[in-house]
Design a protein that fits this description.
Elements: H1 10-13, H2 17-26, H3 33-43, H4 47-57, H5 63-68, H6 70-73, H7 75-85, H8 91-100, E1 106-107, H9 108-115, H10 120-130, E2 134-137, E3 143-146, H11 148-161, H12 163-179, H13 183-192, H14 196-212, H15 216-228, H16 236-249, H17 252-265, H18 272-286, H19 308-324, H20 328-345, H21 348-364, H22 368-381, H23 384-387, H24 391-406, H25 410-426, H26 429-432, H27 439-452, H28 456-467, H29 477-494, H30 498-510, H31 515-527, H32 536-548, H33 559-573, H34 577-594, H35 598-601, H36 605-614, H37 622-638, H38 650-658, H39 665-672, H40 676-690, H41 695-709
Antiparallel strand pairs: 1-3, 2-3
């Protein structure tokens, strides 16, 4: 009468995982956290069954084995389910549930197809309402799921009473899934029907779609079973499906073996479907390097297919070819269309692959913020199990590492680079050749990140080694050469290693690569001599001009950020703060556009001082300027003690200050009013502290110290 009466249904009465753990503890049952989670999932927190399970588990020798088939292994549980639940249901209802037990979940049409009765959905809805043995879920609550433990008991009864019916029911389920179409559901039920010929037929119809849309592992495993049963030999279509699955898994040798068999059996007049499938398989294989059968790239017209997933897969192959040929706008347009189509149709794995291509193109264009957005979205979109340790994931991790470095997050860059290396070490992607173009970039990236974190010698050695990893003919050779040269040249100049810097310049010139990038490198080298050559600053400014006015486009599109940062430094050297402020604003504007902060984060102290002074008056780039300062402070916190400038005494600093000039050691001694031997003693100490062996190198290293502390 007070309106306080409430209906309590099974879900409200079910024990939580914590409550279930308490029941087990009271029964003195010791299970691991993982085992408790399995038990709770299998019982859905059903109090009576949890209690019965705890009584059996207390004496179980192997809890994992017991939990793997709770209804089958627990006699008390089975008796309870049969005696207290199933025996009280009408025979027709029990028969319906037996038929549905071959599926984890069913819709109304599937229930009708399996049970052979038009009111099967009504039976399920009534059971949900009266007993909570069935629950509905999903959009429109159109899916029904039988309680997992009850379903296990029903399926065990079905195996015992009507084993012949199980294959029939799986065939009905497979037909229903195939009609949707849902090829993965069809394949799984074909496998459960224990009929290899049926599995073969399903793979012929749907295998290419499954292999290219994220189910490559399952397809590969089933193909192995068919091969062992003698059902794969001579079947060209299934061999091509195998090629597609192997390529997603990085098994180049296995794919080539199948391609050779296909070539040996290829019919004189193949059907269009078979020709399209071979074209797709060849294109997928050729992306990762030459094959004995098809060479570097397959000939023939673009692949077309009536199937949406295969059409998207062929689109992605065309995008890959366009990207490798430098037709970035075309590649991005194709990949964008693929993203839109896969988003509409819910093909997550293919969507992640399309997003990966868009990310690579954005990175090549210097659009680092866009690159990171696509890489993050690809990782969030892709089915985790299917995406793990694939080439797509490897490229995304590399983009995340590259972006982190260029945004001044060196420690993050190292973590992402380590994940890429882990992928390469634990898969066959390395032997496949898919990540070969990335190897020099990854080495240079790790080296640059370590250098930024204060590990100067280790970082520089890694960058030097990266030059030896660049492979001629790689589709990434031009950006790889430019990136390697930019980071190593800058590091060498910071350490005063002019010889190393000249070697980098010569290496770039030999490859006739990146005129704009080489121009910046030359300007940077000339600017480094400004301390001893008054005209060097203006010469460097003149060299930078085509990069500053946009008339020259470097391979690394973000180089103008570094150019304007360097010009800020040059203006400050001659006391022209007005020009320096203008250059700094331009550097920040471009940094915002490209999403690249590293040149500003690693700028000399006087540029950072100017940035701090101008903070609050920079309009739309104020927030970015604060990010730069925050990144600078974060780097300094990460750097080990002693990684900065070596501590020189006041007298050693005075000697170092005079070394760039024409004075002899005797003249320096006279200028400082000390003996020549004293100057020599100071010079020895300077050499030791700076890690150099000559006056010239000491001068160069001294310029770096002044640059970093000015």
């Amino acid at each position: 009468m007070a309106g306080a009466l409430r209906e309590l249904r099974a879900p409200a009465l079910a024990f939580t995982l914590t409550e279930a753990a308490d029941v087990l503890a009271r029964a003195e049952v010791r299970l691991t956290a993982a085992q408790r989670t399995v038990l709770h999932a299998e019982t859905a927190g059903w109090p009576a069954v949890l209690r019965l399970a705890s009584l059996t588990l207390r004496d179980a020798v192997d809890p994992d084995a017991f939990l793997s088939d709770l209804a089958g292994n627990g006699l008390a549980i089975s008796d309870y389910l049969v005696g207290e639940i199933l025996s009280r249901l009408p025979d027709g209802v029990t028969d319906t549930l037996l038929a549905l037990s071959v599926c984890d979940a069913v819709t109304a049409p599937l229930a009708i197809a399996l049970a052979g009765r038009d009111d099967a959905a009504d039976v399920l809805a009534d059971l949900e309402q009266r007993t909570s043995l069935v629950t509905s879920y999903g959009q429109g609550r159109r899916w029904f799921r039988i309680h997992p433990l009850l379903r296990a008991q029903l399926h065990a009864d079905l195996r015992r009473r009507r084993p012949d019916l199980i294959a029939v029911l799986h065939r009905r389920t497979l037909a229903w899934y195939a009609s949707l179409p849902n090829p993965l559901g069809a394949l799984r039920h074909a496998s459960l029907a224990d009929d290899p010929a049926l599995v073969r037929d399903v793979l012929r119809e749907h295998g290419a779609v499954l292999a290219t849309s994220g189910q490559h592992t399952e397809v590969s495993e089933i193909l192995d079973i068919l091969d062992a049963a003698g059902l794969l030999r001579g079947d060209i279509e299934l061999m091509l499906v195998g090629v597609l699955a192997h390529m997603e898994l990085g098994r180049a040798e296995a794919a080539d073996k199948l391609l050779k068999q296909v070539a040996a059996r290829w019919p004189a007049e193949p059907e269009p479907r078979l020709r399209a499938l071979r074209s797709l398989a060849a294109a997928r294989r050729s992306w990762y390097g030459p094959s004995a059968t098809f060479g570097r790239r397959p000939d023939g017209p673009p692949i077309s297919s009536e199937n949406a997933e295969l059409e998207v897969a062929s689109m992605l192959q065309r995008a890959n070819v366009a990207m490798a040929d430098g037709r970035w706008a075309e590649a991005d347009g194709i990949a964008r269309a693929a993203v839109e189509q896969t988003t509409r149709e819910g093909h997550q794995y293919l969507q992640a692959r399309a997003l990966t291509i868009r990310g690579i193109v954005a990175g090549l264009r210097g659009e680092i913020s866009g690159m990171l957005e696509h890489a993050v979205r690809a990782g969030a979109t892709a089915p985790a199990e299917a995406w793990s340790r694939t080439g797509g994931e490897t490229f995304c991790l590399t983009m995340l590492a590259y972006g982190a470095l260029l945004q001044g997050r060196a420690a993050e860059a190292l973590r992402f680079a380590a994940a890429v290396q882990d992928n390469a070490d634990q898969t066959s992607m390395r032997s496949l050749g898919e990540i070969d173009p990335l190897l020099p970039i990854l080495s240079a990236l790790r080296g640059a990140a370590r250098f930024d974190l204060g590990e100067h010698q280790t970082g520089l050695e890694a960058m030097r080694a990266a030059r030896g990893q660049v492979a001629e003919g790689s589709w990434l050779i031009e950006p790889a050469v430019a990136f390697l040269a930019l980071v190593e040249h800058d590091a060498a100049l910071q350490l005063g290693l002019d010889g190393n810097a000249r070697t980098v310049q010569e290496w770039v010139q030999e490859r006739a690569s990146g005129v704009g990038d080489l121009t910046y490198i030359r300007a940077e080298a000339v600017a480094g001599r400004a301390g001893s050559d008054p005209s060097a600053g203006e010469t460097a400014h003149a060299l930078l001009a085509p990069l500053l006015d946009g008339s020259m486009t470097p391979v690394m599109r973000w180089v103008p950020v570094a150019a304007w940062t360097l010009d800020t430094e040059l203006a400050l050297r001659i006391g022209n703060r007005s020009r320096a402020r203008d250059a700094l604003r331009r550097a920040l504007a471009l940094a915002l556009r490209f999403g690249v902060l590293r040149p500003l984060v690693n700028a000399p102290a006087d540029v950072i001082d100017l940035l701090s002074h101008e903070l609050g008056n920079l309009g739309g780039t104020d927030e970015l300027a604060q990010e730069v300062l925050n990144a600078r402070r974060a780097l300094e916190r990460h750097r080990p003690a002693g990684s900065g400038a070596p501590a020189l005494t006041a007298r050693e600093a005075a000697v170092l200050d005079l070394l760039p000039g024409p004075l002899s050691l005797n003249e320096i001694a006279a200028r400082l009013a000390v003996t020549t031997n004293t100057v020599k003693t100071h010079l020895t100490a300077i050499y030791a502290k700076l890690g150099v062996r000559s006056r010239r190198d000491a001068v160069a290293r001294g310029r770096v110290l002044l640059r970093s502390t000015r």
